[in-house]
Amino acid sequence: MKNQIRVGVLRETKNPPDRRVAIPPDTGLKILDRFSNVSIFIQPSDIRCFTDAEYREHGYFLTEDLRGCDILIGVKEVNIPTLIPHKTYLFFSHTAKKQAHNRKLLQQVIERNITLIDYEYLTDIAGNRLVAFGHWAGVVGAYKALRARGMRTDFFDLPPARTCLDMNDMYNHLKKITLKPIKILITGGGRVAMGAMQTIRVLNLREVNADEFLSKEFDEPVVCRIDPNQYAERIDGSEFDMQHFIKKPEMYRSIFKKFSKVSDLYIACHYWDPKAPKFLTPQDYKEDDFRISVIADVSCDIDGPLPSTLRSSTIASSFYGYDRFNEEETIPFVDRRNVTVMAVDNLPGELPRDSSVDFGEALTENVYEALFGDDPNGILERATIAKDGKLTRHFAYLQDYLEGKNAVTL
Predict the structure, then answer these.
(1) C-alpha 67 chain-centroid distance
(2) 64 pLDDT exceeds 80?
(3) Span 134-350 CATH architecture
(4) CATH, domain 5-131+353-402, list 1.10.760.10, 2.30.40.10, 1.10.132.60, 3.40.50.720
(5) Quick one: average pLDDT of 59-71?
């Protein structure tokens, strides 16, 4: 007989509040049906996108006290005082890149003998991530980019994504707008960029390739998505190679500047390595033919490839201005010479119901078999940062960070 496993769904405690949940009501029922040895307990929450009433209607038991549970599942970092010793936790800990603000969290995980499994490192044997919210960051980021364009031009008005019931509601608002002839650029080819393209395609815009985008003007709005080979080149003049670019990004230089001369709205959805070339310099922004008016930095790399991303913004206050001549933040939508920046770092939180269901389904299909049974492919082992009061071998490099010797500020 399989051991009985009690799973507790945590109330999110990170500030600003996050309304997402890893086990939505319907998804939880699928888990219970599939794994007969599992029971699920819900910690009440007055901010969660699925209400306490919805969980009760589905037959769940709600309780503040989760000390009787074996596994505790959340989304964002758990508030330190609420950590229960000797439990297994799953959440995005943001510690594996030595983030300074979460060092104390990892220290307490070790001190309290907690097993910490980080979603970001749940991968298959080939290294592909099994669960992520990236697609939804792109979906929402593109919508917010268009909203910023409407606010900047006063030509159309879109409600905040957070006020929409779900993605379909958001898209219904999007279908009502009309764009003037503008050129929209998207960088990236992964989940995030595909999510952005999904949103842009709601408008049925003409999609053009990089050569057309760079060389032509159009009497209709167009969109172009580009991959790294179109915005970076090898310093030694050799042919671009994607695997080489991933392994040796420092051997490349940016050729992105030409796109800044022809783009009106730019949605950044790429992955960027700190060793890779920066897309633009502050000086590039000051040139007379710099054309981009709105930059939606979905990737949100502070001190990264785009100088205008001075800081992350918030769901409640999503936009700020970038004075491209003085290189400083300013009030958005006031001076048309400034660039409007959107750099929200938790975009999926604006469509919490959709993104939670998608995330929960991915966990159910790809992870729970290993979590509630055997783990022959090492899925959990690769994602376990701490266990038995110490770092695991995959994350032993965090020891100096754990001891307070170094960290990075993100």
Answers:
(1) 30
(2) yes
(3) 3-Layer(aba) Sandwich (3.40)
(4) 3.40.50.720
(5) 97
